[in-house]
């Protein structure tokens, strides 16, 4: 199982014509790898995520995700592809306040048939999938499940977001500064859980952060650094 | 459908502000329906009050004025007409029947009409229906009175009850014809017309209660008892107006012309249908103005909704970005907002209709007693359904504008959450 999860070839992207934003001559990430991408704010992290999600198209070069050149997909195809294959965790406030825990977790399966079927295949039912995923992350008391999302601590919220990213076995998990709102103790515990779960569910993990101290948790580190030609590059 | 559920839960999450806009749209729905319903019912009720009468004759004034005071008992006669003119015209060879009408007295706010037996045989309302008795029979004796259905019900009168008639109109302290009480001889079935609110006595009775009166007051020292009055010659000298039925409708215009040119007294004959038409033309302006104002209220409610949704977009940017990150497409985001405005409008329509029927149910007795107009609780007409359809459509369209904006915004934001 060494199919490349992500293959980037001579990618360049600029928001404005005159200023180059991001340049990646070559980057390959194998399936199941857990990669730490370090970059300070303004270093093109969001641009990279949007490129990987197919929300924006590269000016030149190719991005292959799971063997598919997403630059060639129509925006609707890219939307489907992202819904099926990508799980995303943000910095904080990941959850919809008006849904309960289980509804928040199952949300991706409402927009992706593939993930719905996977979840049912693995856990029997969608509800069950959410409950078991939450339990794996230590959120298993019934009292907790009935609580409003708003009453959860930030750490708990991030774990719910992780369960949501994992449901239906997407191939690629992108975590965008998921621990920046957590204290050190919770941070380490969360990253541990994240790595563990990605391994267990055979998902490739892309962990983006500015915090260098976190790189000890990862087997591979890439750095978004200033490019002499302008913008940033890997 | 997940989008519907998401919209619904998201709406509940923001209910405080949304309730206000919901109330605003509900009120405009209510207004539009109420104005439309009332105008139809007013027309129906007016049109059904008189049918089968070819001409109404009274003192010369305007035709609407004559129609209003003679048939609808609204307002007062400008002048009376002489008994002699009535006699002559009603004996015209082309006249089939005639009903004299003598107004001017009242009983507890209800009008007293002096008339003849022909009223019970020839007056028709609605779809050419004759008056029916619920109890009793037409007046036979001099001091007999026949009550309209509403009078009997509201004042709780039974056959044989004694009634004193007051001189003049209104509820104020009026001088009463206390020396000559009347006895209820009959109660009519409900008609839904002003007949229900009328007390009917004979022309002779009107004459009898006024024999010892002059110029609107009792003549001091002159007291003629009810018994004495029975023996007197009570031929009326004046009446207020009369209705005519002709043998052939073809002669209506001819007779109308000759009445209008009547030599010995200025008279006016009107065709009730034509007079009603003129009345509607007067009404239609007010009607249109009301409709226009209601439409403006609806418009401003929708603008309010639009403003609210547009301002909420910024607060909901995170919500949209989360949805995008879990796989919602920009189209879903657009739909989410269209569903939101449609759902709100749909709820408002439901509330508006509920409000309409609630107020019809609770206010209609009050309107009837205060204005003498009965609002009937009836189902929505086709046009009213169409009106609701138009509102629903407008509501959905309102959602498209913030929808498109959110669509574009979500394309720009992508998956990144901007704080």
From TrEMBL, chain A:
UniProt-listed Pfam families: ABC_tran
CDD domains according to UniProt: ABC_MJ0796_LolCDE_FtsE
UniProt entry keywords in alphabetical sequence: ATP-binding, Nucleotide-binding, Transport
One GO MF term attached to the UniProt entry: ATP binding
Record domain ABC transporter: where: 6-234
GO cellular component terms, semicolon-separated: plasma membrane
Annotated InterPro entries: AAA+_ATPase (IPR003593), ABC_transporter-like_ATP-bd (IPR003439), ABC_transpr_LolD-like (IPR015854), MacB-like_ATP-bd (IPR017911), P-loop_NTPase (IPR027417)
PROSITE patterns, A to Z: ABC_TRANSPORTER_2 (PS50893)
Keyword ATP-binding: yes
Record SMART domains: AAA
Protein name: ABC transporter, ATP-binding protein
Organism: Neptuniibacter caesariensis
From TrEMBL, chain B:
Classification via Pfam families: FtsX (PF02687), MacB_PCD (PF12704)
Transmembrane annotation, as ranges: 289-313, 334-360, 380-401
Localisation per UniProt entry: Cell membrane
Biological source species: Neptuniibacter caesariensis
Residue ranges of every copy of the ABC3 transporter permease C-terminal domain listed in the record: 291-410
Topology class, membrane: Multi-pass membrane protein
Family annotation (InterPro entries): ABC-4/HrtB_transporter (IPR051125), ABC3_permease_C (IPR003838), MacB_PCD (IPR025857)
GO CC terms, sorted: plasma membrane
Record-given protein name: Peptide ABC transporter permease
UniProt keywords, alphabetically: Cell membrane, Membrane, Transmembrane, Transmembrane helix
Span of domain MacB-like periplasmic core: 18-206
